[in-house]
Write a structure and sequence with these properties.
It comes from Tupaia chinensis (Chinese tree shrew). One of its GO terms (biological process) is carbohydrate metabolic process. Residues 350-397 form the Beta-galactosidase 1-like first all-beta domain. This is Beta-galactosidase-1-like protein. This protein is an alpha/beta fold. It has one domain (5-302): Glycosidases (TIM Barrel, Alpha-Beta Barrel). The chain has helices at residues 43-52, 64-67, 82-91, 101-107, 112-116, 144-158, 173-176, 193-203, 231-243, 292-302, 336-339; strands spanning 10-13, 18-21, 24-26, 29-33, 57-61, 95-99, 127-131, 163-168, 182-187, 210-215, 247-254, 265-267, 271-273, 393-394, 397-398. The strands form 4 sheets. Strands 4-5-6-7-8-9-10-11 form an 8-stranded parallel beta barrel, surrounded by 4 helices. The chain has a 3-stranded antiparallel beta sheet with strand order 1-2-3, with no helix packed on it. Helix 7 links the parallel strand 8 and strand 9. It starts with 9 loop residues before the first strand and ends with a strand.
């Protein structure tokens, strides 16, 4: 029997260091899947496989720039249909741990949060908790006023019943935690679990232990080898946490793909762009196949809670493409009339992406030199004007 909305609750039992779901002790074993990295037609398949692994919850971000390409213009259609994804998660009998981030709160406070209000668990939906910010303690600002402001906005729009939490690495707990928000931590199989959970207890003395990002793999950078995490280490770490009664989210459980130009980058002394693939060495591969890690984790989870009945998911069907031949028809500049049929935007000074309503991708800037330069000359961009990557061409030839 389904409970009435007014009888549903998900709360922290600080006396016994656990969660209570409708008054009953509860522990979630969750996995991350990002709907914006998976085509909509595959959502149900991936969620079904995650449920069959033994997970009872799914965790995901809501990227503001994916839904708001320019200020005041919102897109919740097609693969951006957040409500449709929440509905697919409900069909898979999965609870939701939502991570809407800071920008959404600041710029979508009248758009996103009211949309999800009916999906909160106490209102009859499947969202049991919501993260405020994301690893904010990693930033040097340590701005508690900012966190309080965000928490106030969330409470004003969602009420006092929904569980709000923060997530930080061990070194970020000091500046990332806030009274009134439940404090969780993130770490991987190679980290010292005992030491990190002991540190977490300094900021959250009572309540369930929670690892909000237990890393099943890692991301890849262009030009480097594929990152992997060994199965024994991943399963061993998971079982240790579950023996402690902790709730765990595995990041990622299915990574998916960074379509188009949506891949990000890191700055670790040098520019490190992330690959199109977001496979992450996750239990479900980028192609949607259950991997040996999937079945090993399924076995580990089965030691602590019941695994759903049903046929084990087979590998996803593949298409035989055969050899692919690419023919060069010309360089990029030769096709500008086709790419930009209305011609260029003319301006005195270079315009930003935002000024021309270009949310990502490439911009081509062209100008004519007013004098002939015979000596090698330094090309200077003021104020660190290139924030990603630039190619410089002179008379159509790349320098």
């Amino acid at each position: 029997l389904l409970l009435q909305a007014d009888t549903r609750s998900f709360v922290v039992d600080r006396d016994h260091d656990r969660f209570l779901l409708d008054g009953v002790p509860f522990r979630y074993v969750s996995g991350s899947l990002h709907y914006f990295r998976v085509p909509r037609v595959l959502w149900a398949d991936r969620l079904y496989k995650m449920r069959l692994s033994g997970l009872n919850a799914i965790q995901f971000y809501v990227p503001w720039n994916y839904h708001e390409p320019e200020p005041g213009v919102y897109n919740f259609n097609g693969s951006r249909d957040l409500i449709a994804f929440l509905n697919e998660a409900a069909k898979a009998n999965m609870f939701v741990i939502l991570r809407p981030g800071p920008y959404i709160c600041a710029e979508w406070d009248m758009v996103l949060l009211p949309k999800i209000h009916p999906w909160l668990y106490h209102n009859g939906g499947n969202i049991i908790s919501i993260q405020v910010e994301n690893e904010y303690g990693s930033y040097k600002a340590c701005d508690v006023i900012y966190l309080r402001h965000l928490a106030g906005l969330f409470r004003a729009l969602l009420g006092d019943q929904i569980l709000l939490f923060t997530t930080d690495g061990p070194e970020g707990l000091k500046c990332g935690s806030l009274k009134g928000l439940y404090t969780t931590v993130d770490f991987g199989p190679a980290d010292n679990m005992t030491k990190i959970f002991a540190l977490l207890r300094k900021y959250e003395p009572h309540g369930p232990l929670v690892n909000s990002e237990y890393y099943t793999g890692w991301l890849d950078y262009w030009g480097q080898n594929h990152s992997t995490r060994g199965i024994p280490a991943v399963t061993r770490g998971l079982e240790k946490m579950l023996k402690l009664g902790a709730s765990v989210n595995m990041y990622m459980f299915h990574g998916g793909t960074n379509f188009g130009y949506w891949n990000g980058a890191d700055e670790k002394g040098r520019f490190l762009p992330i690959t199109t693939s977001y496979d992450y060495d996750a239990p479900i591969s980028e192609a949607g196949d259950p991997t040996p890690k999937f079945f090993a984790l399924r076995n580990s989870i089965s030691k602590f809670q019941e695994i759903p009945l049903g046929p084990l998911p087979p590998p996803s069907p593949k298409m035989m493409l055969g050899p692919l031949t690419l023919n060069l028809d010309g360089d990029l500049l030769a096709f500008l009339d086709f790419l930009c049929p209305h011609g260029p935007i003319r301006s005195i000074l270079p315009m930003t992406f935002e000024a021309v309503k270009q949310d990502h991708g490439f911009m081509l800037y062209r100008t004519y030199l007013t004098q002939t330069i015979f000596e090698p000359t330094l090309f200077w961009v003021p104020n660190n004007g290139v924030h990603d990557r630039a190619y410089v061409m002179v008379d159509g030839v790349r320098t």
